[in-house]
Design goal:
The structure holds two protein chains of two kinds. Chain A is an alpha+beta fold. Chain A folds into two domains: 3-214, 2-Layer Sandwich (PmbA/TldD fold); 223-447, no CATH class. Chain A has helices spanning 15-28, 84-100, 124-127, 131-147, 207-220, 238-250, 254-259, 318-324, 347-352, 405-408, and strands at 33-49, 52-70, 73-79, 151-167, 172-188, 191-199, 224-225, 230-236, 277-281, 303-307, 310-311, 335-339, 356-370, 375-388, 391-396, 399-403, 414-415, 419-423, 426-431, 434-444. A six-stranded antiparallel β-sheet of chain A has the order 3-2-1-4-5-6. In chain A, strands 8-13-14-16-20 form a five-stranded mixed barrel. A four-stranded antiparallel β-sheet of chain A has the order 11-10-9-12, with no helix packed on it. In chain A, a hairpin with a 4-residue loop joins strand 13 (356-370) and strand 14. Chain A is globular and about 70 Å long. Chain B is α+β, with helices and mostly antiparallel strands. Chain B has helices spanning 6-19, 77-94, 125-141, 205-208, 212-228, 243-255, 260-263, 373-378, 429-434; strands at 24-40, 43-61, 64-70, 109-113, 145-163, 168-186, 189-196, 235-241, 293-296, 317-322, 325-326, 348-349, 358-359, 364-366, 382-387, 392-394, 400-403, 407-412, 415-420, 423-428, 436-439, 446-455, 460-468, 471-480. The chains are: A alpha+beta, B alpha+beta.
């Protein structure tokens, strides 16, 4: 295969074509309000395991969704078939639903037209990367592992998505979004090491650097001891921090807050975490996956959610925002967590400054245990180590944790600058690695 | 000019694949129609009707896979995608160390149709929204209930599978489900209680037979009782687990470890591997002699009983755990040969036309025993009876698990007494199943399905059903779910 394989990428729906399709919908629709959403997605993934390619796929799916409303009665129908007949059918299905639906007291007409921010959401090198480029990175990872007599399992993927939104009040948005992802699990007997990346640019996946990091983790995990469950100081690497904060972010739903069924109920404007921690939406950050607009047709905007430990924002639907007088509605698709004060230079420096701590590479299968106080459980994974007197002394068997981020992040002892973090259960974030004084591990597994 | 038939598209694709020199190829053309109605807090929040049509082509070239798929079903796109699948397979072949071989399977020509009494897509929408609104009103009639939700889901999959070996199977499959949830507030606490019909391959009769109003009254009252219930005291308890709860326990602690691709390392980077490694097959004591777990992809109504899998292999029934010993994996045509099997178990499924099929958990169920549920409870001095699903988490080799539940009752001296809240139990999979000392008889057997089983990269949602009768487990570690134990 050659780089020319990129030519096999299909032509995506253009701005003019989306305008034509949405106008076609508006022409066919008899509803008071009509909204059209386009999600035209093309992605390829090369998956490998046991130092071999086990899956190599390319999928293109275009989806057009039509939402119509008559007097507050609304319905949605979608289709992957963009022919005129299929679109007509989607409009009819949406209208049929809307006409017999009960009035929805929370329905709001489409937002007013506005100029969405223009963001660098697509990179030509990612668009041009096809199976050949993915295979090149795959080979790099496998080769490094083979040289060390280790087993590699992972994925290299690249995708391009055309997203559009239009309404019969003149609202119109159209955006190309691309991303590339790499993740690698290195197996050294029973030990594993892991690293992952996601970026708009496939050139920024840092495949070699991350491969070497995963190899180092796996090799360091060969000599393992078992510690008892209990409360330990911890050093959480960025992926582990992101895993916990992803659940905290999910708990910020405004309706649950108003109904009293949120773990942060009553805490808006109050400290919820260490007063040096701030969480922002940074859609223009080049290392985050910022977007121009939301599926609701709202501009994504920079905003502060947690300011010096104080909860400042909730996640609003357009209805709760109207009820609560929130305007503009903050979005959080590009989360960046930071700590005020002087960071240490690296995770290694966090290790050096620890008397005794558990170093956690990543968490896995995080799930809520108690929605009232956001106690979560999950497992450590792919590199868990005992640190004593500033040095990693051994790997330890993986722990199950039982902890609330609302408790764990009350006190941050040391931290790095924010770093890129992504794992299989969270979106891309910028977060520091952190040393926390107390973290509860409730049981130990067999490896 | 009439548009080509699906068979004509399939023939076009397979001609390209065969001409390329590939040793194997198949095409799946699928039209999935989904209706999802969601109610929340006494309103119909959304009704979505989704039509998802497309095709996926899989090619095995010189022992390596390629797959390409598209939602544009046209005379121009089918050959483009077929050629792309071949090109990708050639790329895979260029770096292959070990060639993929496929276990033999007879050629099948068949048509599989889900039997049903009432087509869910023919039921008037007003009837469905009325049902959900009435259900939510019933939930709110219970004093203390602050929030409600109710939903209905139905899906029809029309699919054609054609392989270069000559297998040709048409599918017309239905599935449905309904549920409701009450959330009660008390002091500063809240707690939820749900009723779920199983996800099954049935028509709308599944919903009509469920009596949502009666169930809504029950779960609303139990939500209020639950939020006021005392917190469990941590310690060791005997557990009596109902079939709905067990369906998740079986899924996580037996289903996933018995997927052979996991055991062989294919999922090491995401879903994980398995403690049920291949040398344990036939000898490892997974559970007590009461534990018989059977994979049955032939049982009518169940999600994985699709007649044939996405390898074109006919669905089968086999033992996974027999008298407590691990004896069988879920396999596909690729991995079956790696443990010396001569035929795939037929557990290779994709979640749609755009996904490549991967090994999936079968309909694994716990075989009934001989006791009654009352007898199981009667022999418990201090225990907990658990219904439904709650918090769940398990490590990537499926050893260390932790489960909550939807409702808990304290058992004292052989009697189910009052509700508890915040019950969490944890353990190590084989130790837990070895502590099983009784399974209720067939009269207690129920089936529950899953449609969101996450696996694969890109991620896919797997479908399968787990049946069980109520079962008892001795001296399991229970902790409080409200914070540090």
């Amino acid at each position: 295969m050659t780089a020319a394989s990129g030519k096999s990428w299909p032509r995506m729906t253009s701005r003019e074509e989306f305008r034509f399709l949405s106008d076609l919908v508006f022409t066919r629709s008899s509803a008071d309000q009509t909204m059209v959403r386009l999600h035209d997605h093309h992605a390829g993934t090369t998956r490998f395991a046991n130092n071999q390619v086990v899956q190599n796929v390319d999928t293109r799916r275009g989806l057009l969704s039509v939402n119509v409303a008559f007097d507050g009665r609304h319905g949605t129908a979608s289709t992957t078939d963009f022919t005129a007949g299929a679109i007509q059918d989607a409009v009819m299905r949406a209208e049929r639903i809307a006409r017999v639906s009960p009035v929805d007291p929370e329905y709001l007409p489409p937002p007013d037209p506005c100029a969405f921010p223009m963001r660098a959401t697509v990179k030509s090198e990612t668009v041009g990367a096809g199976p050949a480029r993915r295979l090149e990175y795959t080979n790099e990872a496998i080769s490094q592992c083979r040289m060390e007599n280790l087993m590699a399992a992972g994925v290299v993927s690249s995708s391009m998505t055309v997203v559009g939104i239009a309404a019969n009040n003149g609202l119109f948005g159209y955006e190309h979004r691309g991303d590339a992802r790499y993740s690698l699990t290195v197996q050294a007997g029973d030990a594993t090491g892991w690293s992952a990346a996601a970026h708009r640019s496939i050139d920024h996946l840092k495949v070699q650097e991350r491969t070497l990091a995963a190899i180092k983790k796996a090799k360091s995990g060969r000599d393992v001891q078992e510690l008892s469950e209990g409360t330990y100081p911890v050093i959480l690497e960025p992926a582990a921090v992101a895993g916990l904060w992803a659940w905290l972010i999910r708990s910020l739903d405004a309706k649950s807050y108003a109904k009293g069924t949120s773990p942060v109920a009553g805490k808006l404007g109050r400290h919820i975490v260490d007063e040096r921690l701030s969480l922002r939406n940074s859609p223009d950050h080049p290392d985050l996956l910022g977007e121009g607009f939301t599926p609701d047709g709202l501009p994504s905007i920079a905003s502060v959610w947690v300011d010096h430990g104080v909860l400042r924002q909730l996640a609003h639907s357009r209805f709760t925002a109207k009820t609560d007088g929130v305007d503009p509605i903050p979005t959080l698709e590009a989360p960046a967590l930071s700590v005020e004060g002087l960071p240490v230079a690296s995770i290694q420096d966090l290790v050096k400054s620890a008397e005794r701590a558990i170093l956690v590479t990543n968490f896995w299968y995080i799930r809520p245990v108690n929605d009232r106080n956001l106690v979560l459980t999950g497992m450590t994974r792919d590199g868990t180590f005992l640190v004593e007197k500033g040095e990693v002394v051994s790997a330890v068997k993986n722990f199950r944790f039982h902890e609330s981020p609302l408790t764990a992040f009350q006190q941050v002892e040391a931290w790095t600058r924010p770093m890129e973090a992504v794992n299989s259960e969270t979106g891309k974030m910028l977060v520091p690695a952190m040393a926390l004084p107390r973290f509860t591990f409730s049981s130990v597994t067999r490896f | 000019m009439s548009s080509p038939t699906w068979d004509e598209f399939a023939e076009l694709a397979l001609k390209r694949i065969t001409a390329s020199g590939a040793e194997y190829g198949d095409i799946r053309i699928q039209d999935s129609h989904t209706e999802q109605i969601d109610g929340e807090d006494r309103r119909i929040a959304s009704i979505r009707d989704t039509q998802d049509i497309g095709f996926g082509i899989r090619v095995l070239y010189h022992g390596a896979w390629g797959f390409a798929a598209s939602s544009i079903l046209s005379l121009e796109e089918v050959p483009r995608v077929a050629d792309l699948a071949v090109e990708i397979a050639k790329g895979s072949a260029s770096v292959a160390l070990e060639k993929v071989r496929l276990a033999q399977e007879p050629v099948h020509r068949d048509r599989v149709v889900t039997p049903y009494r009432i087509d869910p897509f023919s039921v008037a929408l007003e009837k469905k929204t009325d049902l959900l609104l009435t259900t939510m009103e019933t939930l709110h009639r219970q004093s203390g209930v602050a929030r409600s939700s109710a939903s209905l889901w139905a899906r029809r999959d029309r699919k054609l599978f054609v392989s270069s070996e000559g297998t040709h199977v048409e599918f017309d499959l239905l599935a449905g489900q309904g549920d409701c949830t009450a959330t009660a507030l008390y002091e500063s606490r809240f707690a939820s209680r749900s009723f779920n019909t199983p996800h099954l391959r049935q028509g709308y009769e599944l919903i009509e037979d469920a009596d949502l109003q009666r169930e809504a009254s029950r779960v609303a009252a139990q939500a209020v009782e639950k939020v006021k219930a005392p917190v469990v005291d941590a310690g060791q308890y005997d557990l009596v687990l109902d079939p709905e709860h067990l369906s998740l326990t079986i899924h996580e602690s037996c289903g996933h470890p018995s997927e052979l691709d996991r055991a062989l390392g294919y999922e090491a980077n995401y879903a994980g591997t398995s403690f049920l490694t291949t040398e344990k097959l036939g000898s490892f004591r997974y559970g007590s002699s009461h534990v018989n777990l059977v994979a049955d992809n032939t049982e009518s109504d169940t999600l994985a009983a699709t007649g044939y899998d996405d390898d074109g292999v006919s669905c089968q029934k086999w033992d996974v755990i027999r008298d407590g010993i691990f004896v069988g994996y879920c396999t596909n045509r690729e991995v079956a040969l790696k443990i010396g099997a001569t035929r795939s178990r037929g557990s290779n499924r994709a979640d749609g036309w755009g996904s490549v099929p991967i090994v999936r958990i079968a309909n694994i169920g716990l075989e009934p025993g001989s006791a009654t549920v009352d007898q199981l409870i009667a022999d418990v001095k201090r225990g907990i009876y658990i219904e439904g699903h709650g918090s769940y988490s398990i490590d990537q080799r499926r050893y260390n698990f932790q489960f909550g539940g939807d409702a808990f009752w304290l058992i004292e001296h052989g009697r189910r007494t009052h509700m508890l809240r915040d019950v969490i139990y944890h353990g190590i999979t084989p130790e837990f199943w070895r502590s099983c000392d009784g399974v209720a008889d067939r009269s207690a057997r129920r089936r529950y399905g899953f449609i969101t089983c996450g696996k694969g990269q890109p991620g896919q949602s797997g479908w399968m059903t787990h049946a069980a009768s109520t079962a008892r487990f001795r001296q399991v570690q229970v902790i409080r779910g409200e914070g540090q134990s």
